User: Which sequence fits this backbone?
């Protein structure tokens, strides 16, 4: 499980997630990745190193270029871990007792009392 800590930390950055998404389609060298995502070389080097340390990306030298590819087996393990630990079990309610509504994340869901009009029946007529 210690490796998952490093992996989840690596996934926390949107640029690294974009790199992984790009690598889903196949191996790419750093120049191609940087161009496709408009990431400066120094930042890209940092992100690729972080992804390699998390074992989410593997690299292989091809002539004068280094080719990066998604390490699908580690991604599969992360997905299995997330499903096992965070997905609702069959037969359990998916919300685990939380109330759902159309209210935004910082708004309370309306209750019966707060959803009623402050006007009486007579005043509405």
Assistant:
């Amino acid at each position: 499980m210690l490796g998952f800590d490093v992996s989840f930390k690596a996934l926390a950055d949107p640029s690294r997630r974009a790199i992984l998404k790009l690598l889903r389609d196949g191996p790419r060298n750093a120049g191609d990745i940087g161009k496709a995502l408009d990431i400066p070389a120094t930042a890209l080097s940092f992100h690729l190193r972080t992804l390699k340390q998390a074992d989410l990306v593997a690299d292989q030298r091809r002539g004068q270029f280094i080719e990066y590819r998604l390490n699908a087996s580690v991604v599969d393990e992360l997905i299995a871990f997330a499903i096992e630990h965070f997905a609702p079990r069959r037969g359990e309610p998916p919300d685990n007792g939380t109330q759902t509504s159309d209210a935004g994340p910082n708004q309370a869901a309306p209750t019966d009392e707060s959803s009623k009009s402050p006007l009486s029946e007579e005043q509405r007529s």
